[in-house]
Amino acid sequence: MTDPGKDAEASARRGRRLKHIAFLPSFITLINGACGFLALLFASNAQFTMAGYLILVAMIADVLDGRVARLTRTTSSFGGQLDSLCDAISFGIAPAFMMLLLVEHHLEYLGLGGLDFSIHLGRVMIVSAIFYAMCTVVRLARFNVENEEDEAAHMNFTGLPSPAAAGVVVTLVICHQEVLPAAVDEASRMFHIFTITALPLVTLFCGMLMVSRIRYPHLANQLLRSKKSPPFLLAIFSAVLLILWNIHAALAIGFCGFALVGVLRWVIGLFRKPAAAKAPPSE
Hints:
Layout: H1 4-15, H2 23-44, H3 48-71, H4 77-109, H5 116-146, E1 156-158, H6 162-179, H7 186-210, E2 215-217, H8 219-224, H9 230-245, H10 247-278
Antiparallel strand pairs: 1-2
Helix pairs in contact: 2-3, 2-4, 3-4, 3-6, 4-5, 4-6, 4-7, 5-7, 6-7, 6-10, 9-10
C-alpha cells in the first residue's frame, strides 16, 4: 500500500512551478558554465592555454556566485542545482577533454605514435578522462545530498573539491604550454615526454581523490573566519613572491600542493590511530 501523505507531497511537488530566480547569482553561475563550454571549443582547436585560462575564470565565477547569493540573501535550491550543472561542465568535462586532446596531439607531434607504449597510453588517457568526468558528477551529486545550509559548517570538504581537481589538471596543461615550447635540447624533450605520459595518471588520481572521504579544508572560510599566526603570514607572503616570479608555476604548485596536503594528512592520521589505540590510558 502506498502512503497517502507521500502521494500528496509528490503531487504538490509536481504542481509546484518556479516563478522567480535570483538574477545576479544565477547570471554569475551561467558565466561559469559558459567559460567551461568555451574551453571545450578552444581545446578542440588545440588552443590549450586559452582553454585553461577560461577554466580559471570559471573558478572565479564559482567562488563569486555563492558569495553574492549569501550577501544578497538569495540562496536557493535552484541556485545550488544550477551551480552543480555548470561545475560538471567547467570542472568535469572540460578538463578531461583538454587532457585527452593535449596528450593525443603531442603524441603525434613527438613522433611517438608508432611506439608500443603509446597504444597503452592511449587507452589510459581515454579511461582516465571518462573516469575523471564521472567522478566529478558523483562528487557534485554527493555534495548536493550531504550539503548543509549553515555556512558555519562549511569549514571542510569531504573529498577533493571539483574546482581544485580541475585546477591541478588545467594548471599543469598551462605550464606545459607556456614553459615547454622554448625547450629544444634532448633533456627538455624527455621532460616533455614525461609530462605527456604522466598527465593521464594525474587526472585519474584527481578523480579518485574527488570521490574519496579524505578531508580538505575550505580555504576561503578558514582564511576569513579565524586569526592567523606570524608563520602563516610569512607563508602567504612567500606565495605572493612566487606568483610574482612565475604565476604559471605558482598556480601549478598551489593546486598540486593542496591536493597532496589532504593525502598526507590522511596518511598521517592512519599512523596516529594505531599509536593512539596502543597508548595506555591516562590516570
